[in-house]
Write a structure and sequence with these properties.
95 residues; alpha+beta; two-stranded antiparallel ribbon; 2 helices; 15% strand
């Protein structure tokens, strides 16, 4: 069941969506997307809505991929630290 709705007015398109998320969260996502689109427009000089949406999507995918890579590296470091602590505890407790 949908929790919230969102009115979208971006890149010349206007429509509403319903989603299983809180309205504040949906607005936050839209604000972020609009910011990315504006940054892409300034960086590229493009005005074509389709091209801007594609470039913005690629920018967001790049951010997501980098976040996943960072998270995976952090997970490995956390695992290493945890295993080291377990070994130290085992050593301190003895046989």
């Amino acid at each position: 069941m949908a929790k919230g709705g969102l009115r979208i007015d971006v890149l010349g398109a206007s429509f509403s969506i319903a989603a299983d998320e809180e309205p504040e969260y949906l607005q936050k996502l839209l604000s972020r997307y609009v910011r990315i689109v504006d940054e892409a427009r300034k960086a590229t000089g493009m005005n074509d809505p389709l091209k801007l949406s594609i470039v913005s999507g690629i920018v967001l995918c790049d951010e997501l991929e980098k976040s996943h890579r960072t998270g995976a590296a952090e997970d490995k470091e956390t695992e290493k630290i945890t295993l080291d602590l377990i070994a130290r505890i085992d050593e301190a407790l003895g046989p």
